[in-house]
Amino acid sequence: MLPFTDWILEKLALEKTLFRTMAVSSLGLLLLALLFRSLTDAFGMCHRFYVNCQRLRCFPEPPRRNWLLGHLNLARSTEEGLQDAAQLTAQYGRICVWWFGPWVPILRLFHPETIGPVLRESAAVAPKDKLFYGFLKPWLGDGLLLSGGKKWGRHRRMLTPAFHFDILKPYMKFFNQSTDIMHVKPDFSDSKDIFCRDFLPCLLLTSRLIMCSRKSSDYIAAILELSNLVVLRQHALIHHFDWLYYLSTNGRRFRRACDTVHRFTANVIQERRRAHSRLGDDAWLKSKQGKTVDFIDVLLLAKDEEGRHLSDADIAAEADTFMFEGHDTTASGLSWVLYNLARHPNYQDQCREEIQNLLRGRETEEIEWEDLSQMPFTTMCIKESLRLHPPVTAISRRCTEDVKLPDGKIIPKGNICLVSIFGTHHNPAVWPEPEVYNPHRFEPKALQNQSPLAFVPFSAGPRNCIGQNFAMSELKVALALTLLRFVVRLDESQAVRRLPALILRAENGLWLQVEPVRTQQ
């Protein structure tokens, strides 16, 4: 190091002393160590990448357009993109490797035998992947959708009682009332009028059940804006960098909408917490006997095994998460099942006859809790619609350990697995004639030889949708009352093009014609 040290001192025009010599030598050694460490890390990264690529060679891979983009330019959130996904599923059957640029491999899974091992793994082994879910974090925080590890397990155990059947039963009156509100809108009240698939009452209902608040129009508008902004960000690669995104117009809109949502939720929580403090939990529970307990109250009362409550930040995250996951998925499911029944009037007539027979002789047109199990064909129609048009088309996991598939192949740890719900539901090896709407697929006899993972609109395994019973109950009530009162037909002048965003939508909405049933008689 001495020649180097002398050269440095000479260039800096410094007199050579013992201290300066030792300082420059130490600095040089530090720089060499950092360089060596960087080279070692780079070599290790390249070696791990090479080993991972070798281990992935057992899985088929579609042709890439080029080495830089990989398959990135083939992924499209359009009708054509869904058709490509169906074609990919038919061609490769179970699994294939998809490259997100030159460095990030993604395993696309679209068969019960391949999605099962990943979905059944614990939240620690197969957590949510940040590449696809990270953009939701500033909005939803550490709710059930995005949290992992011990925190996710603790919250899941604490929230599960909120979706018990005994808790859901009192909500039936809200399901009926919200559907009544939807039916008295001008779009429904006028004969042969046309309506779009954006059913705002589904969102209003969810808001009431969570917050018990009717004054939430700004909150609802902010949720709708945040959903759209997240999708726009996913498709703009330059906005994947936070510092660039928040300098953009959309980034500033995202911050403002987040502030609106968080401020509204915080105010509701503080107001409800003050009410609990005034009465005390025991007295408050007595005051609620025979009444509906909303989600915020359940969160405030929830305790873990050690008797600890959720913090205000945790309650806000769970409330915002449920608003996001609960409103748009239900609206999408209801819209697509009405669309499918409009395309198949014979099935629609069967559903209507089943509901008319169920409610015959009653004074009021109201679906009760016991009725939900007494409409088997209507339920089959809902499930077939969820198969054909799943509200959530895919979910992602990043494996922290190797995952073994039934055929002996191994998914190496560290890789992203994209569980294609749409692909599984449209896999001809799983569902014959997958593009045909056929509710009879869900007859008990037909399902005897079918894998339970062939139908996963609410995911499966330990991280399945905690609110699936809530969603199915709401769908049954809304569909039953709609078909009881209206005949639904297609508007042939409007082409339908699917749009797989955060939720499966239609590009220009699903436009249908409705006519009161009484005019048919």
Please identify the top-level CATH class. Mainly Alpha
Structural class based on helices, strands and sheet pairing: alpha+beta
Rg of Cα set: 28 Å
Helix percent band: 40-55%
Structure summary, number of beta strands: 11
Strand order of the largest sheet: 1-2-7-4
Main location: endoplasmic reticulum
InterPro entries: Cyt_P450, Cyt_P450_CS, Cyt_P450_E_grp-I, Cyt_P450_sf, Cytochrome_P450_Monoox
Organism: Podarcis muralis
Family: Belongs to the cytochrome P450 family.
Question: Which keywords apply here?
Answer:
four-stranded mixed β-sheet, Cytochrome p450, 521 residues, alpha+beta, 22 helices, single chain, 53% helix
Compile the SSE list and pairings.
Layout: H1 2-11, H2 18-56, H3 79-92, E1 95-100, E2 104-109, H4 112-119, H5 130-133, H6 137-140, H7 149-159, H8 165-168, H9 172-183, H10 186-189, E3 194-195, H11 200-211, H12 217-234, H13 242-245, H14 249-279, H15 281-287, H16 295-301, H17 312-343, H18 345-359, H19 376-388, E4 394-398, E5 403-404, E6 410-411, E7 416-420, H20 421-425, H21 444-447, H22 468-485, E8 486-490, E9 498-500, E10 504-506, E11 512-516
Parallel strand pairs: 2-7
Antiparallel strand pairs: 1-2, 3-11, 4-7, 5-6, 8-11, 9-10
Helix pairs in contact: 1-2, 9-11, 9-22, 11-17, 12-14, 14-15, 14-17, 17-19, 17-22, 18-22
